[in-house]
Structures are given as C-alpha cells and as structure tokens.
Amino acid sequence: SGFDADLARMDSNLADIILPDLTKALTTAHGAQVGDLHLLNYYNPYAKTCPNSTPFVHEVNDHLQADAAQYRVPIVDIYTAFGGDSAMASHICDYTWYCDPRFQGNIHPTTQGYRIIANAVEAALGLPGSGPAIGGAPLTWGAPGLRSRLDVRLAPVWRDPRRLN
C-alpha cells in the first residue's frame, strides 16, 4: 500500500541518510560526541475528529523509534505530552489550530502547543532551569517493545511565552 511504501521511504531516509549524517556531524575525528541529537515523535492532530487514525500515528511513531534506536538517538515523546491515547482528543483543540474555524484543518500547534513541545524538549535535553514537560512527556529510547523511559512527569512548569518568539 501507499502507507507502507511511505513508511519504508521514511525508514530508509532516516536510517540510511539523515541519522548517519547527523551523528557523524556530531562526532569528532577522535570519536568523541560533541552534541546531543534527539528526535521528536508525532502527536495525532486527528484524534478528535478521526479516532481511527490512532493506529497509524502509533505505527509512524514506532518506526521513528526503531530508526532512532539504531543510532542510540533518544525520542522526545510529544505524543504523550499532547495527552497520549487517553487525553489527546480532549487537548488537540487547545494545542493545535485544527478546531479553529478561521484555520480550518490546520494541524500545526498553537502557541500553547508549541509551549508543550518546547517544555518536553527542554526537559529531555536537561537544560538548566528547565522543568518537566507539560503533559508529562517521558523521554524514550529503544526499539518498540523494548522501551526504556526516563519519566519526567513532575509538576507542570509554565514558561514565559515571549521566549517562544
């Protein structure tokens, strides 16, 4: 099917080109790593209007995780930060423009959604002064079924929205 071909292309692009090139760029000639590389997974913008889309988003995210695991690249779990299976549908209209009639069908995050994503990334990177991700997004790595989690689910920390501009 087209979906399977797209997944295979994504896997090939990530595992054969993108991740090798990025990890090489972050490694010195002596083999020392000089930077951090993290990959974000996807939230489901259609969770409210098309609940049957959830398995597709899970499959894409599982492929991203498996591809990243080949290079020991951690995944920042944006899917969970946006509410996961149990609460994504109830948050998606706040975190994306999808339900706003002025931007019909726009799946991109709102300022609040970008704040959730930024907090999840900051927490995953362990930046000084960063708190846990709003929504409780854990950092995950490893192949599907062998997931390890560094749980960063603590009290929500709200950031200054001016920092997002």
Topology of helices and strands:
Blueprint: H1 2-25, E1 39-40, H2 54-69, E2 75-76, H3 78-81, H4 84-95, H5 111-125, E3 139-141, E4 148-150
Parallel strand pairs: 1-2
Antiparallel strand pairs: 2-3, 3-4
Helix pairs in contact: 1-2
What percentage of amino acids are in beta strands?
Answer: 5-15%
**Judging from the principal axes of the Cα atoms, what is the shape?**
globular
Low-pLDDT ranges: 133-165
Order of helices and strands: HEHEHHHEE
Tell me about the largest β-sheet.
Answer: 4 strands, mixed
Radius of gyration: 17 Å
Measured as a percent range, the helix fraction is 40-55%
How does this model look, in words?
- Helix content is 43%, strand content 6%.
- It is built from five helices and four strands; from the N terminus they run αβαβαααββ.
- It has helices at 2-25, 54-69, 78-81, 84-95, 111-125, and strands at residues 39-40, 75-76, 139-141, 148-150.
- A four-stranded mixed sheet has the order 1-2-3-4.
- Strand 3 (139-141) and strand 4 (148-150) form a beta hairpin.
- Helix 1 (2-25) packs parallel to helix 2 (54-69).
- The longest helix has 24 residues, at 2-25.
